[in-house]
Write a structure and sequence with these properties.
- The protein is an alpha+beta fold.
- The chain is built from 7 helices and 4 strands.
- A 4-stranded antiparallel beta sheet has the order 2-1-3-4.
- Strand 1 (106-110) and strand 2 (113-114) form a beta hairpin.
- Helix 2 (15-35) runs antiparallel to helix 3 (46-64).
- The chain is elongated and about 70 Å long.
- The N and C termini lie far apart (71 Å).
């Protein structure tokens, strides 16, 4: 048995092509998740995991083309991680970019009243809302001063008198 070291450590695809592919797919998937998939309600369900797996599988060929060597994979991975780091760094240093890239908090309950338009906007059912209230030890909407869906999909809740 011999190892073809040039096949393992040589490039089988142009590094520039890998960078372009990685960049295009990163931005496509980023925008897809930013625009379409905001609602999280603080948990990951079966459908969420399924969509992530399907997106990963569907984007694999567009990302990689026909690469086969270790350096090909390393360039592609470094491109994706580089874009992610750069976006985080830029968002940290630029308030305007942070506002553009992160969705604003969304108020779901204000002064004991459910804001139905915001529930519809995020496709949150009454059952999901009630479950979040119970998780926070709240029996009635009237006990809630404010309930907000944060940018990361988590729910924050402020009760009256607490």
């Amino acid at each position: 048995m011999t190892v073809d070291w040039s096949a393992v450590f040589g490039f089988s695809v142009s590094p520039l092509e890998l960078i372009v592919r990685g960049t295009v797919m990163f931005w496509f998937i980023f925008l897809l998740f930013r625009v379409v998939v905001r609602r999280d309600m603080g948990s990951v369900g079966i459908a969420d995991i399924l969509i992530i797996v399907i997106i990963a599988d569907a984007s694999q060929n567009a990302l990689a083309g026909e690469y086969t060597s270790v350096p090909d994979g390393m360039v592609l991975l470094a491109t994706l991680i580089g874009w992610n780091y750069l976006l985080n760094w830029l968002s940290f240093h630029s308030r305007a970019l942070d506002r553009l890239l992160e969705p604003p908090p969304l108020t779901l309950i204000r002064h004991g009243r459910v804001i139905r338009a915001n529930l519809r906007r995020e496709l949150i059912t009454d059952r999901e809302l009630e479950a979040k209230l119970r998780e926070n030890g709240v029996e009635s909407v009237s006990e809630v001063k404010s309930m907000t869906m944060e940018a990361d999909g988590q729910i924050s809740l402020i009760r009256y008198g607490k």
